[in-house]
TrEMBL record:
<keyword id="KW-0472">Membrane</keyword>
<keyword id="KW-1003">Cell membrane</keyword>
<dbReference type="GO" id="GO:0000155">
    <property type="term" value="F:phosphorelay sensor kinase activity"/>
</dbReference>
<feature type="transmembrane region" description="Helical">
    <location>
        <begin position="185"/>
        <end position="203"/>
    </location>
</feature>
<keyword id="KW-1133">Transmembrane helix</keyword>
<dbReference type="InterPro" id="IPR036890">
    <property type="entry name" value="HATPase_C_sf"/>
</dbReference>
<feature type="domain" description="Histidine kinase">
    <location>
        <begin position="264"/>
        <end position="478"/>
    </location>
</feature>
<feature type="domain" description="HAMP">
    <location>
        <begin position="204"/>
        <end position="256"/>
    </location>
</feature>
<keyword id="KW-0547">Nucleotide-binding</keyword>
<dbReference type="InterPro" id="IPR004358">
    <property type="entry name" value="Sig_transdc_His_kin-like_C"/>
</dbReference>
<dbReference type="InterPro" id="IPR003660">
    <property type="entry name" value="HAMP_dom"/>
</dbReference>
<keyword id="KW-0808">Transferase</keyword>
<dbReference type="InterPro" id="IPR036097">
    <property type="entry name" value="HisK_dim/P_sf"/>
</dbReference>
<keyword id="KW-0812">Transmembrane</keyword>
<dbReference type="GO" id="GO:0005886">
    <property type="term" value="C:plasma membrane"/>
</dbReference>
<dbReference type="Pfam" id="PF00512">
    <property type="entry name" value="HisKA"/>
</dbReference>
<dbReference type="InterPro" id="IPR050980">
    <property type="entry name" value="2C_sensor_his_kinase"/>
</dbReference>
Length: 478
């Protein structure tokens, strides 16, 4: 490259790029509010949410099931207690009615639940209308809780009260926790403990993955674009880690392309601008018409060079920034290749440009992007036009499922150690393949990007003609 580098120019450009990326990351990835988010806080929040939801669901299901089974349970309780209530009633009927209260107290001492006698009129507010109908019909009525039973004693106004049947509602057992409650407490305690242990072993690797992703995001936000997220321990965050790493690589690639284009174009612009400035100065100092026309021609050539540089740089930047979606179409390959070579043949001046498609099957059709692929082929041909001595040979072949185009010239060739490096942007070799022949080192880079778009590659090797061979290789049928 030509031109003088400004001190610190590349480092300043790099610092500006990192500053822009750092600002974007800090906007898109805000820090945790309230400081560092701890593993214990995440665990307890998740535990309370999950366990609370589980308990609420369990109690709701229990309520629904209990409500649905209330009628079945009441009917079972009636049939279960009918014999006991009948025996108590028969025992009372063997004694005068005036002694029923004393007799019921004697019987109460023999049962684990309470027995009593009340007036029928006192029960209207304690029972639902359907239960009142059952009571008056001589059947067993049950209260709202399903724990106290009522049975009318014959045709009298007295009602036998049996219950509460539950042990926790009996005074003598009030100081002890009911067995059902103890079982429920034990069951829920074991459930909560087992759930907590299982949740801990699930949350811990998730937390580690979150911390790794968070740290990677911080590093990227601070301008360290070499940072990558380690492999996720949980499958939940494996896709996210891969996506972040791909994003980091893409950002790093875009920033590198930006720096490369900025530095390369700034260097390339200096030469034609300096020549134009020199020509303008000379133009003001001469009155000779021939000299003025020569200087005007020089400036027009420099303007053409600037225009070509900008157009080529924009094309390269477009392929680097965001690879366009390929639109493949099947074309008659031999005819397409001949037409493309003929379209640029005039640029070869007096060079012998030959096209050989004899190795291709007859009527071969190949899938390619008719808008992008000509970029690659024409750049290879222009490169060959610059460095060929007298001959250029374009040939094509089909190898299995892959098609190849070879562009050979009879120039000085390319050293083996440089054959991969020349596909980098703004790369040129020694003076035999340098500015004297024109170009900016972008044509081969564009050719490779086009072939990558087709799922193929562009390579360099030695040509049978003695110069350089450039090959385009991609899958014939996409």
């Amino acid at each position: 490259m030509t031109g003088t580098e400004f001190p610190g120019g590349e480092s300043a450009e790099k610092e500006r790029s990192q500053g822009l990326a750092r600002s974007l990351f800090r906007v898109s990835l805000p820090r945790w509010r309230g400081g560092r988010y701890s593993l214990s806080k995440l665990f307890f929040n998740f535990y309370l949410l999950a366990m609370g939801s589980f308990v609420a669901i369990a109690f709701t299901a229990d309520f629904v099931i209990s409500t649905a089974q209330r009628g079945i349970t009441d009917d079972y309780a009636r049939r279960f207690m009918r014999g006991t209530i009948t025996l108590i009633e028969d025992e009372l009927f063997r004694h005068p009615r005036s002694t029923w209260q004393r007799k019921i107290k004697d019987l109460d001492e023999k049962f684990s639940y309470k027995l009593g006698i009340v007036e029928r009129m006192s029960l209207d507010r304690k029972l639902t209308p359907p239960q009142v109908v059952k009571l008056d019909a001589g059947d067993i009525a049950i209260d709202h809780d399903g724990d106290i039973m009522y049975h009318r004693l014959g045709t009298s106004s007295l009602v036998l009260v049996v219950g509460p049947l539950a042990s926790n509602r009996n005074p003598e057992l009030a100081e002890r926790l009911p067995l059902e409650l103890r079982l429920r407490l034990l069951t829920w305690s074991l459930t909560g403990l087992i759930f907590g242990i299982a949740l801990w072993f699930w949350v811990r690797p998730v937390w580690r993955d979150l911390e790794a992703l968070r740290q990677t995001a911080r590093d990227l936000g601070d301008g360290d674009f070499e940072a990558r997220s380690p492999s996720a321990r949980s499958q939940l965050f494996a896709p996210l880690a891969d996506t972040m790493n791909n994003m980091a690589e893409r950002v790093q690639q875009l920033l590198a392309t930006h720096r490369e284009l900025s530095c390369g174009i700034s260097h390339e612009l200096r030469t034609p601008i300096a020549r134009m400035r020199f020509a303008l100065e000379m133009l003001t100092e001469t009155d000779q018409q021939a000299e003025r026309e020569r200087l005007w021609s020089m400036m027009e050539a420099d303007l053409d060079e600037l225009d070509q540089l900008i157009d080529t740089s924009l094309t390269y930047a477009r392929f680097e920034r965001e690879a366009p979606e390929p639109h493949f179409s099947s074309v008659p390959f031999a005819e397409w290749l001949s037409d493309e070579v003929d379209s640029v043949r005039l640029l070869g001046r007096n060079l012998d440009v030959a096209v050989n498609t004899d190795q291709l099957p007859e009527n071969l059709c190949v899938d390619l992007d008719r808008k992008a692929m000509p970029y690659a082929l024409r750049n290879l041909l222009r490169n060959a036009f610059k460095y060929a001595s007298s001959r250029i040979a374009v040939s094509a072949e089909l190898d299995g499922e892959r098609v190849r185009i070879h562009v050979d010239d009879d120039g000085i060739g390319i050293p083996p150690e440089e054959r991969e490096h020349i596909f980098s942007a703004f790369t040129r070799l020694d003076r035999s393949r340098d500015r004297s022949t024109g170009g900016y080192g972008l044509g081969l880079a564009i050719a490779r990007r086009v072939l990558e778009l087709h799922g193929g590659n562009a390579t360099a090797a030695a040509a049978p003609l003695g110069g350089a061979r450039f090959t385009l290789d991609w899958k014939a049928h996409q």
